[in-house]
Amino acid sequence: MKRPAAVTELLEELKRLPGIGPKTAERLSFFLMRGSEDQARRLAQAIIHIKEKIVLCSQCHSITDKDPCEICSDPNRDRSTLCVVEEPHDVYIFENMGHFKGQYHVLMGVISPLDGVGPPDLTIDDLKRRVEQNNLKEVILATNPDMEGESTALYIAKLLKPYNVKISRIARGLPVGGDIEFADSVTLQKSLEGRMEL
């Protein structure tokens, strides 16, 4: 039986989302069809609001609804320590832990030659500029402990070595090949506490 065009269109759009395969897309589409029109409009409006109101912070490159973001504009944050992460959602993971009081820099990915992603595709130049212009004591490299995250951390460590700043790497409390996104707060805390200088 052929699906109506509107259902096919919804399925195709849902399958574009990360982690959503054909079966999950089908379940979600039927859930949305069974729901009220008001519920669907609220979901659609929330998606539109994200595109209209969310921007990247001009300083750290995290997501925000005002620039600079809340963390970058907070005078109580430790401005001498900078935690470098891969993606904006990593900032929220560290913040939910509640132990890190420094500032962040979001790379917007990792170096991955197989995917055609090199240093110019990331915010590494902005990171270098922040190190040059600010009185930083430490840069903590908190990329994922997988091959791309490790190579990105090593590249940044080498790049920043000439500057008078301590460069450290989060400890191996996280499983190799795992993502920061899935770590519990205790593991993240131990990773921060056990970081090593590169």
Task: Please describe what this structure looks like.
The structure is a single chain. With 198 residues, the chain is an alpha/beta fold. It has two domains: 5-47, Helicase, Ruva Protein, domain 3 (Orthogonal Bundle), CATH 1.10.8; 76-197, Dna Topoisomerase Vi A Subunit, Chain: A, domain 2. Helix content is 42%, strand content 12%. It has helices at residues 5-15, 22-34, 37-53, 88-97, 124-133, 147-160, 185-193, and strands spanning 55-56, 63-64, 81-85, 103-106, 138-141, 166-169, 196-197. Strands 4-3-5-6-7 form a five-stranded mixed sheet. Helix 6 (147-160) links the parallel strand 5 (138-141) and strand 6. Helix 4 (88-97) crosses helix 7. The radius of gyration is 20 Å and the shape is elongated. The N and C termini lie far apart (60 Å). The mean pLDDT is 93.
